[in-house]
Write a structure and sequence with these properties.
three-stranded antiparallel beta sheet; SH3_Tf2-1; mainly beta; 2 domains; 1 helix
């Protein structure tokens, strides 16, 4: 397995050094392969990097946009409530999260 493109560098069997745009050059650019996914090119995936605000501690603020769905599952006789959270309009990212955690961290979603 080698680099995905000319700018990416294969560090070892489980790590890649990724070429980042100049605006993100201050971020650590070596990633474990478990954090990488195969990319299928799509012209609608072009992101405006001006929208990204990197903090001094090199983190990026991200928060949920809205809760799309609530579901209850019974696991070993215990009810577990989860919510489908819509995180990002540009990437259309959605994940299932524990409702209890989301209510605690993001109460504004349930107002």
């Amino acid at each position: 397995m080698g680099p995905r493109n000319r700018e990416d560098i294969w560090i070892g069997p489980v790590a890649y050094e990724i070429a980042l745009p100049p605006l993100l050059a201050n971020l650590h650019n070596v990633f474990h392969v478990s954090q990488l996914r195969k990319y299928i090119p799509d012209p609608t995936h072009v992101l405006d990097v001006d929208d990204i605000q990197v903090r001094e501690d090199l983190t990026i603020e991200a928060g949920p946009v809205k809760v799309l769905k609530v579901q209850t599952k019974n696991l070993s006789g215990k009810e577990i409530r989860t919510v489908k959270v819509f995180w990002n309009e540009k990437t259309q990212e959605m994940t299932w999260e524990l409702e209890e955690f989301m209510r605690k961290e993001y109460p504004q979603l349930f107002a």
